[in-house]
Amino acid sequence: MISVKLVFFICCVTLDTIVHSKPQFDLLGGYDTFGICFNNCAQCKKLYGVYFEAERCAQTCITYRGKTIPDCEDVQSIAPFLISLDVSK
């Protein structure tokens, strides 16, 4: 007779091959900084809309290999990607 533990183990192995997750943690190098950087660029684009240059932000992620991660709540980290309003016209 098959034990409950063996059935549970087989189910877990089967489900693991079917369900794939995309963690932002790389086992060999720590956090996936590219993924975090790109996700933060997308979040800032959703937050600031047309006033945020997401393409430029993503290009910076590629150039610096994800070392400079933008934070939408930190103005200094996203200042290069913000489009200023010209209210004097």
UniProtKB/TrEMBL annotation:
Coiled-coil region: none
Alphabetic keyword roster: Signal
Biological processes, Gene Ontology terms: ecdysis, chitin-based cuticle; neuropeptide signaling pathway
Signal in keyword set: yes
Protein name in the entry: Eclosion hormone
GO molecular function, one term: ecdysis-triggering hormone activity
Species, as recorded: Anopheles atroparvus (European mosquito)
Signal peptide location: 1-21
